[in-house]
Amino acid sequence: MTAVRSFTGPVAGIAILGACAALVYGAQAVLSSYLVTLLAIMLINMALAVSLNISNGLAGLFSLGHPAFMTIGAYVSAVLTFPPGRKDFMLPDLPSFLMTTQLPLLPALLVAGITGAVIAFLVGLPVLRLKGHYLAVATLGLIVIVQGLATNWTGLTRGGSGLNGIPRLTGIWWCFGFAAVVVYTALRLKFSSLGRAMMATRENALAAESSGVSTYRIRMLAFVLGAFFAAVAGGLMVHLITVVTPKSYSVVLAFNLVAMVVIGGTGSITGSIVAAVALTGLSEAVRPLEEKLGLYGLSQVSVALGLILVLFFRPNGLLGSGEPRFVRRIFGGFLP
């Protein structure tokens, strides 16, 4: 009986992954290129919301810095995949080894993710000693700093003009694979001893410290891991829409991601997935109405109203901090 139970979890997980892959295959075969691109963006937003839930939901941080790491990842991966012939006149201040380098997408994404993680570690050394709204303001300032550097470092980023003509290397399968990796990592983390240490830190840092948990290291790990995934997401996004500017990933995106986490439930990975799909679909559905009525910004208002309604009727989010029973059975060892 024990052997059957231990075998059921992985099989069920593979079955769910296969079913999702079949849906993606069907969508790619039936839907228009516009809707397929929208689905790819939805998958990236899903991965972003889940990765933010690792730091904000599991570890209890209040970080708004995901757009900054996305910007870093977007520029790094774009430069690494740019044809050398175009770098000569578009990016004249690049170091010589970058001027002649052109990497495939996967290595470029890994370098972008590692760059984002290293910067998150350096930023986290002083910043993660802050708590609550102080940490939120500090990470919000990180967005401003990264945007300022990208705007003024013209020899490396072309300043406010941004980079265009970036190779369109990202497809829906890249986005699906990335989302699957992020969701799997987050769920495995949540139901591990490390995840329990993160949640203990979130609930009561002093009690966690008294139990031998290094809360500073736990927060650093969550912050760096979230930054790695955010930087990779930025790299995928820039190779999907083929352009990036210093303001491509702004405070508005930070608000949307936090809204996804809060609406889905802080600490709930499944809730983040549901909220990311719902809010991305809602924003795109409202966009034609914006253009027809001239009420630009209506999609953002819709997201804000949705957040207010959820906070009013379900303060803990749609799923609270828990997961559906079938998810717990797959990743949590048949918890009741």
TrEMBL record:
It is a multi-pass membrane protein. PROSITE patterns: PROKAR_LIPOPROTEIN (PS51257). Pfam families: BPD_transp_2. It comes from the Bacteria. The chain crosses the membrane at residues 7-27, 33-54, 61-83, 103-125, 132-151, 171-189, 220-241, 253-281, 293-313. Keywords: Cell membrane, Membrane, Transmembrane, Transmembrane helix. Signal peptide: none annotated. InterPro entries: ABC_transp_permease (IPR001851), LivM-like (IPR043428). Its main location: membrane. It is found in: Cell membrane. This is Branched-chain amino acid transport system permease protein.
